[in-house]
Amino acid sequence: MSKEVTIIFKATPSLNRGITFVSYPLKQPLYFTILYHKITTAIQFKVDTNCSLIRNGKVQIGMFRNLENCKFCQTFFKLENQKDARYDIRAKFSGVNRMFEREIFQFQCEKLDLNVTSGKSTKPTNNYLLILGWKLVGGEDDLLFFFVQRRGYNSVLRTNVIRTAGLQFSTTRGNEFLKQYYNRKLNSVQEKDEKADYIDFLDEEDKNEEEK
Fold first, then answer.
1. Cα–Cα distance, 169 to 106 (Å, whole number)
2. What is the rounded distance in angstroms from the CA atom of residue 203 to the CA atom of residue 200?
3. Is the distance from CB of 145 to CB of 41 less than 8 angstroms?
4. What's residue 206's pLDDT?
5. Handedness of CA 32, 38, 44, 46 (dihedral sign)
6. Where are the beta strands (DSSP E) in 121-158?
7. Element (H, E) at 209
8. Other C-beta atoms within 10 Å of 29: how many?
9. Which residues is 36 bridged to in the sheet?
10. Spans of all domains in the chain
């Protein structure tokens, strides 16, 4: 017989929507909520810290607002930044690092279309919330990472805005896995930098893809 679970979160003027998910580190349920605003790019996480996995220290929580300082993102993802008159983009997901594309897999993808119209205009804005869930191949559920991307439009500045955040659930074993992959990535970068004929191939490829 399944046990009923009640999830409560407080809506505020700056975070007036929420969506709740359940993950299964160590094969036990762990609930978390992503709070967001229906128009702005504000994001916040709320995790059920009363869960026995958290209380007993079996699973550690990592919350990241600056994904360029997140080891999981530094190791496995390619992130895009852009700031000009039309765009204000911070750490947009643009793909998986080719070096590790066979080492992780995406187990979840949720995209909420939050398009709204103003006044008599029927043209929708590019307004969405994207949640991507990632695991290590062969790592069971010792390391779970949720990449959250929020896109909106600032009508005053007339700028497309993208903000991102990350939520990580990891066991001691999962943290050790991540450390090993991160060190491997660092060693690979150092080896490439030492070569006289080194070309930043990935950045050039990204540029070509954007031009297409």
1. 15
2. 6
3. no
4. 44
5. negative
6. 128-136, 143-154
7. helix 201-211
8. 13
9. 17, 43
10. 17-193
Token readout for 187 is 């060693």
Q: What is the pTM of this model?
A: 0.83
At 12-56, the pLDDT tens digits run: 888 999 999 999 999 999 999 999 999 899 999 999 988 999 999
Closest CA to 100 of 73, 119, 68: 73
Q: Are 54 and 30 in contact (CB under 8 A)?
A: yes
Cα distance between residue 30 and residue 45, in whole Å: 13
Angle at 212 between CA 185 and CA 87, to 5 degrees: 75
> Are 140 and 121 within 8 A, CB to CB?
no
Q: Are 147 and 166 in contact (CB under 8 A)?
A: yes
Question: Residue type at 121?
Answer: S
What mean pLDDT comes out for the span 168-178? 97
Tokens coding 179: 């450390």
Q: Could you read off the pLDDT of 95-111 as tens digits, one per residue?
A: 999 999 999 999 999 99
Q: What would you report as the CA-atom Rg of the chain, rounded to the nearest whole angstrom?
A: 19
- pLDDT at 205 > cutoff 70: no
Q: Which residue type sits at 2?
A: S
Whether the Cβ atoms of residue 166 and residue 61 lie closer than 8 Å to each other: no
Q: Which two tokens stand for residue 102?
A: 């066979």
Write down the mean pLDDT value for the chain.
86
Q: How far is CA 167 from the centre of its chain?
A: 7
User: How would you class 195 by CB atoms within 10 Å of its CB: exposed for 0-12, middle for 13-18, buried for 19 or more?
Assistant: exposed
**Quick one: tokens of 166?**
């990350």
pLDDT at 211: 47
